[in-house]
Amino acid sequence: MRRLEAAPKGPEDLASLAGLYHRAGRLAEADAAMRRAIDLAPERPDFHTRRGAVLYDLGRVAEAVRSLQAARDLSGGLQEEAEAQLSLATLTLRYVVEPIGAAEEEVRRTGGSAEARTALACALLLRGDLAGALRELRCALAPSRRAAAAELSGRRTAATALAFLYTLMPSGRVPFERAVREVTRALRARELALPGDAPEEARLLLHAGEIYEAAVHEEGAAACYARALAADPTDPAAYDVAARFAAAGAPEAGVLREAVERALAAARGEAELRPQDPAARRRLAFVLLGAARFFAASPSRADAASAAEALSAAREILSERLRGGDHDATAALAFADLLEREGESGQAALLLDRARRWPEGAGSWRVAFEWAALLMRTGRLREAVAEFERARALAPTEPAIAHAQRLAIANLRRLEIERFRFRRAGRGQAPTAEEELRMGLAHLAAGQVEEAMTRLRGAIASEPEYAPAHDAMGLALRRLGRREEAEAAFRRALEIDPSLAPAHRHLAEARIDEASSSGDPGDLPEIVEELEAYLFWQRPERGE
């Protein structure tokens, strides 16, 4: 590098210097060197391709697209690597850069309204800019002299989004005191200004509970979750978090059990008073589904019977709603979730596909979001990204959509990059176990489990004692619900390399799954032992 820096002799030397800068992470210098090389040899398509890669890593995606398109125009086509880069850069430009630019323009147009700032915060999540998103939401929640109704509505949305963003932060990095203070202030403001907005109130309380839970403050978390259940007893997320407490046998589970039983009694009472009211019966079905999740998590035999009874009743009501010809997209969402939990993913996909074409479903961001999530889980990433964008257009201030879309784009990018590397490495020779493993993990992250297992089998065949490949195979098997085989794969990885920290954690998680489903806590000592081993090997210097 020093020789080239001292006296680059021509465009080739400049391009080589740019490559060294790029690998060293000195991106601005890499771009400057490539610009000079292109000035000297503008007809070289490979120079435009290299500059496109540098610009992409600099975050200047629109310029990267133009550079790669120039390379294609000069050569009459692109090599496989450059074509993949252009495809990913175009995807990023369309689904990340342009939405952020449009949201910034809306903030300028509205003079910084709370709703516009919340939409910008959600758009910033598309590129993983959590700090920028938090900054925008705090601006949205700052005191304002704007018209009360419009600004209070925007501040309500911003409050929920802010709480959601805190739940994305790693537990050790959540500024607990500030988070609780900001969310509590938002809750008080909403209670005074916007009473009766139950679903939004429940979501804010759920996020507040997650913040408490991340800080290992179970009592505060349970109190928030119980209030969320009271605010909106039809929200399945509230029952899922309550079920975690029931499964763990936590003392706070009693408070949540009371909240679940109150919600169930109220929904049954309403349905009995208005037996012909479809809304009351649908509400009862949603509460029954939630109660079934809570009771199923409990180790009690009586609760298991209650869960089965509630599930059967909910299934009957939802089937009746969907058989009656009513295009009830909300009921379809609930029934699709029930089918997927029972292992009937194909039927769930068919139902969601139908629901998104109904008039109500076509205008529902939740239907679009669930359809996109299903596409992502089944490995159809490009379709998932496009469907998340449709959901985001319907609800631009909903941060969960932007977060999920970012994950889909990241997984697609990883898959395309690893696919190219794998093909390039395999030219003329068999891929190594490490290359097979990387490709397998990329398929697994993309939801393509069978493809992942094919690559992982290849890694194990070429290097039977390669512990990370056995660990990854366990993850794939666990994704397919093959618990015993997954545990065997994790144990095999640890036989080969007892210091492989992720395998200890994965084995503990598999044992926790087994204990939760069976209601038998007998494996608790082994779970604790594996987690201790994970912590030791993850941070050997802190093993004490």
Description:
- With 544 residues, this protein is mainly alpha-helical.
- Among the domains are: 2-90, Alpha Horseshoe (Serine Threonine Protein Phosphatase 5, Tetratricopeptide repeat), CATH 1.25.40.10; 327-413, Serine Threonine Protein Phosphatase 5, Tetratricopeptide repeat (Alpha Horseshoe); 430-542, Serine Threonine Protein Phosphatase 5, Tetratricopeptide repeat.
- 79% of the residues lie in helices and 0% in strands.
- The chain contains 28 helices and no strands.
- The chain has helices at 2-6, 11-23, 27-40, 45-58, 61-75, 80-110, 114-125, 130-141, 148-168, 176-193, 198-214, 218-231, 236-248, 253-273, 278-297, 301-323, 329-341, 345-355, 359-362, 365-377, 381-394, 399-425, 433-445, 449-462, 467-479, 483-496, 501-518, 524-538.
- It is globular and about 85 Å long.
